[in-house]
Design brief:
alpha/beta, elongated, 2 domains, 282 residues, Alpha/beta knot, 60s Ribosomal Protein L30, Chain: A
Length: 282
């Protein structure tokens, strides 16, 4: 029997659950299916690396779910998770029916993410640009943006109306743990959206739109000051009403054979340039 530490064993920590109607299993399944938090505010995550990142990021766990055939592989995780956290052992068929990935790694969890506000992001302006996403639809793109925002330095990310949920399992996985640490907030919807821009401008933040074909070239843009960079929908780009309210529009140079860049790639390039300018001072 595999020892996990502190005298406890993997088998001792795991409570076997056979039915899909177990309340925690139902919460996990619904959170994955809807791409939203549970009613009690927990996010569904899956995969060994993501669960390890949640532990490393100091998140609070509600429950951990282990596929029966994978219990030996996850023994090292259990000593890092509090004894009061429910740890459930699920038959393979039940686990694979709940977790949406085609090749699940045998572990999933419900974790509570850290909560942030616009004020929290504004207090981090010295770190790098604020990223604002308006209508980004692909969860993989969103996860890439979050990962790049943490890697290259960003004050935080604001999700505008129409943007895919950051709790979508594909976004969580693509973020590689950055969602657990980077300030990510939802911007107000409807007519209040302009209020966010005005709050940013009131703090001396310059508002920059991105375009695939026209605007200031990327290397000429000034990212050394406090800026918020807006990225739009993968196909349609930023709505005209948002562009009209910007202080500047920037374009990323690319060959004319390519109509536009993937939103995650575009954001990564802009964030890298912003980090380069801040490091070099030019």
């Amino acid at each position: 029997m595999k020892t996990t530490g502190g005298g406890a064993t993997t088998a001792h920590r795991l409570r076997r659950v056979e039915g899909r109607h177990n309340p925690l299993v139902k919460q996990l399944r619904q959170a994955f299916a809807r791409g939203e938090l549970t009613e009690t505010g927990y996010c569904a995550v899956e995969g060994l690396r993501i669960v390890e990142e949640a532990i490393r990021s100091g998140l609070r766990f509600q429950a951990v779910f282990v596929r029966e055939s994978s219990q030996e592989r996850i023994g090292r995780l259990l000593p890092q998770i509090g004894d009061r956290v429910d740890t459930l052992l699920l038959p393979d068929a039940l686990f694979e029916g709940v977790v949406p990935t085609e090749s699940p790694q045998g572990v999933a969890a419900l974790v509570r993410l850290k909560e942030f506000s616009l004020e929290d992001i504004l207090q981090r302006l010295q770190i790098g640009p604020i990223v604002v996403l308006a209508g980004l639809q692909d969860p993989g793109n969103l996860g890439t943006v979050l990962r790049s925002a943490e890697a290259f330095g960003s004050a935080g990310v604001i999700l505008g109306p129409g943007t895919v949920s950051p709790f979508n399992w594909k976004a969580v996985r693509a973020s590689a743990g950055s969602l657990f640490r980077l300030p990510v907030i939802h911007g107000e919807g409807g007519g209040e959206r302009a209020g966010v821009s005005e709050k940013l401008r009131a703090q001396g933040v310059r508002l920059i739109a991105t375009s695939s074909h026209k605007g200031t070239t990327l290397e000429m843009a000034d990212f050394k000051r406090s800026v918020a960079v807006f990225f739009g929908n993968e196909g349609a780009g930023l709505p005209r009403e948002i562009v009209a309210g910007m202080d500047e529009t920037i374009a990323i140079p690319h060959t004319p054979q390519v109509e536009s860049l993937n939103a995650g790639v575009a954001a990564s390039i802009v964030l890298y340039e912003a980090a380069r300018q801040r490091r070099s001072g030019v």
